[in-house]
Amino acid sequence: MSMKSNILLIYTGGTIGMKQDPETMTLVPFDFSQILEEVPELKKFVHTIDLHSFDPPIDSSDIEVKIWMDIANLIKERYEDYDGFVVLHGTDTMSYSASALSFMLENLEKPVVFTGSQLPIGMLRTDGKENLISSIEIAAARDKDGRAMVPEVSVFFESQLYRGNRTTKYNAENFRAFRSANYPSLADAGIHIKYNIPFIRYPGTWGKELAVNTNLDTNVTILKIFPGISPDTVKSILSTPNLKALIIETYGSGNAPTKQWFINLLQEAIAKGLIIFNISQCLAGSVDMEAYATGILLKRIGVIGGNDSTTEAAIAKLFFLLGQNADILTTK
């Protein structure tokens, strides 16, 4: 069903907002309020498109928790005025931000679509125009009852719409920069945009008020398991001041060394109250701590299995749950 929607573009920064200086040939930010000059195709939309730009723009490498809070609070403030939101964001940390917003925005009934580009929007071969135009169309799409087609936080890139907290930046050089290895796409943009309805998350009850949870606790770190890892390395990570949760990136389906010193260090940390969350180093697949003896041993000492969580989602989820003082002994 086609109908006019009100869309808010939230420009945080990133490659999509860059253009090449004709004299120095270096990439420099342009005034994003002039976006219609760079993408005149936007004038063809029947939708009302407004813009909010972060000033100054934030390079995605400098994204911090405060930026997540600013985005979430802005959406909360403008929630009643708009039918959908498109967040323009640098690609390097886009999956972290999309994962965080997916937990922070409770009772979300409108699209929040993250997108960006691998080439600046001012360059001839840019992927930014198509990503931007399709993201707006998705954010504006509503069903016959006037409800959003994709009422969740998502990432759109190179013709694919993914659930935000299922994405990982996979490639730094190709236009298809993101993957969602463990969950199907929510929509596919070809000649038409095809929505994969069975995989989109819809509210059990429509009409609830949006709640924004900005209490995040960042006392979390990551330990990547590798052959030859030393006791001193593990001890150093575990002795991080104020540490409350540790993500361990293990082999395959959740396996780690069985050396006694390693198990003892983890067991002692868990006994002192540290939460240890086990996710796989593999880009696809799931942790199953009952498949092999090494995983069974980790489960026995109290390590929590992270199922098929990405690193980005694990970080965001732990920040969120620790901030809510929630019982995090769940991987649902």
Layout of SSEs?
Blueprint: E1 6-11, E2 18-20, E3 27-29, H1 35-38, E4 48-53, H2 65-78, E5 84-88, H3 94-104, E6 105-106, E7 112-115, H4 128-140, E8 153-157, E9 160-163, E10 168-169, E11 178-179, E12 187-189, E13 193-195, E14 211-212, E15 220-224, H5 231-238, E16 245-250, H6 260-271, E17 275-280, H7 293-301, E18 304-305, H8 311-323
Parallel strand pairs: 1-4, 1-5, 5-7, 7-8, 15-16, 16-17, 17-18
Antiparallel strand pairs: 2-3, 6-14, 8-9, 9-12, 10-11, 12-13
Helix pairs in contact: 2-3, 3-8, 5-6
Explain what the structure shows.
The protein is of the alpha/beta class and 332 residues long. 25% of the residues lie in helices and 21% in strands. The protein has eight helices and 18 strands. It has helices at 35-38, 65-78, 94-104, 128-140, 231-238, 260-271, 293-301, 311-323; strands at residues 6-11, 18-20, 27-29, 48-53, 84-88, 105-106, 112-115, 153-157, 160-163, 168-169, 178-179, 187-189, 193-195, 211-212, 220-224, 245-250, 275-280, 304-305. The strands form five sheets. The protein has an eight-stranded mixed beta sheet, sandwiched between helices. Strands 15-16-17-18 form a four-stranded parallel beta sheet, sandwiched between helices. α2 packs across α3, α3 (94-104) packs parallel to α8 (311-323) and α5 packs parallel to α6. The longest helix has 14 residues, at 65-78. It is globular and about 65 Å long. The protein starts with 5 loop residues before the first strand and ends in a 9-residue tail after the last helix. The mean pLDDT is 92.
